[in-house]
Amino acid sequence: TAIDKGGYRHFMAKEIAEQPAVLGDVLSHYIKGDRIVLPDGMDFSEVDRITLVACGTAYLAGYVAKYWFEKLAGLPCDLDVASEFRYREPPLSEKSWGIFVSQSGETADTLAALHYARGKVAKTVGVVNVGTSAIARDTDTALPTMAGVEVCVASSKAFTCQLAVLAVLALKAAQDRGMLDDAALARHLADLRGIPALVNQALSTADDCEKLAEWLSESADVLFLGRGPLYPVALEGALKLKELSYIHAEGYASGELKHGPIALIDQNMPVVVVAPRDELFEKTVSNMQEVMARHGQVLLVSDAAGIEEAGDGIHAPLTMPTGGGLFQPIVYAVPMQYLAYFTAVAKGTDVDQPRNLAKSVTVE
Ligand code: G6P
């Protein structure tokens, strides 16, 4: 059947809304009951290091996965944008695996990085959406992300499906390396299986995001802050806003605020803080207070407990569902997508085909 907008105003809105369904598909492909099901040879017992390489939004999926591989599996993880990796000629351990993340599977820099790594590492793994692509063909094992055709140049459902596959890989690594007992593994698998329902709940932030976008669309710059595995989600929020609305945006690690970007803060600066109520939340609250003391306008994206704990002084809260455990970044991607989408709509830019960008960059 032909790909159409299915009643949505833009492909991006349709692709955002498809996420609960495609995430359900991909997770049930790789998780059967309490078992992780991966192709033969996907055993991490002897692996000493992971190298993740990708571009753009796929790179940010890899960035979240670095936190997961290190935290869950105790597996050291290097991460690089493909254009830097390929020319730096990094030394690679022959016991390591290279993981190449790409929606199209045709990105020239990522493909060249794969060709560089081949023969130097024990295994190359592709996390790809297009099963017939060059990266799917040239990796030892290609794992489909099963997001379906993504038309909008800016990636949404392909990103969250990449995260789902990478989460499965991190759990498999933890299991193979004996880092999780059965009960802990079952708990994480239950968290992961619960993600599509939470993403479905997160879709209901659309109305709030649409209202907040009126405000964001009048800003010249927006800062996004996050910590831990939500830091790459903040980077993704900034990337999306730049791509779609042409507003200058930067993502920063919350703790790094005081080392630079705090100098930019005044009453005209919206600061989007991506922070579920977790064990580091107190530190994030103190970062927000630093912003508010300089009259920065905080948009706090958190769960009900986080918003309550943050107290007064916040310009606007955006309430997220609770839950998801370590896999919360997948859920928090949704308001990042909607904020960028509705800001672009408010500005009247071309949402599905932003200026100067291409869906798949097959030249250097
Ligand atoms: C382009 C697209 C991005 C995408 C990046 C990597 O810049 O506009 O949306 O994230 O390429 O593409 P890939 O197909 O390798 O994931």
Automatic annotation (TrEMBL):
<dbReference type="GO" id="GO:0006002">
    <property type="term" value="P:fructose 6-phosphate metabolic process"/>
</dbReference>
<keyword id="KW-0677">Repeat</keyword>
<dbReference type="GO" id="GO:0097367">
    <property type="term" value="F:carbohydrate derivative binding"/>
</dbReference>
<comment type="subunit">
    <text>Homodimer.</text>
</comment>
<feature type="active site" description="For Fru-6P isomerization activity">
    <location>
        <position position="359"/>
    </location>
</feature>
<keyword id="KW-0963">Cytoplasm</keyword>
<keyword id="KW-0808">Transferase</keyword>
<dbReference type="GO" id="GO:0006047">
    <property type="term" value="P:UDP-N-acetylglucosamine metabolic process"/>
</dbReference>
<dbReference type="GO" id="GO:0005829">
    <property type="term" value="C:cytosol"/>
</dbReference>
<keyword id="KW-0032">Aminotransferase</keyword>
<feature type="domain" description="SIS">
    <location>
        <begin position="38"/>
        <end position="179"/>
    </location>
</feature>
<dbReference type="GO" id="GO:0005975">
    <property type="term" value="P:carbohydrate metabolic process"/>
</dbReference>
<comment type="function">
    <text>Catalyzes the first step in hexosamine metabolism, converting fructose-6P into glucosamine-6P using glutamine as a nitrogen source.</text>
</comment>
<keyword id="KW-0315">Glutamine amidotransferase</keyword>
<dbReference type="GO" id="GO:0006487">
    <property type="term" value="P:protein N-linked glycosylation"/>
</dbReference>
<dbReference type="GO" id="GO:0004360">
    <property type="term" value="F:glutamine-fructose-6-phosphate transaminase (isomerizing) activity"/>
</dbReference>
<feature type="domain" description="SIS">
    <location>
        <begin position="212"/>
        <end position="354"/>
    </location>
</feature>
<protein>
    <recommendedName>
        <fullName>Glutamine--fructose-6-phosphate aminotransferase [isomerizing]</fullName>
        <ecNumber>2.6.1.16</ecNumber>
    </recommendedName>
</protein>
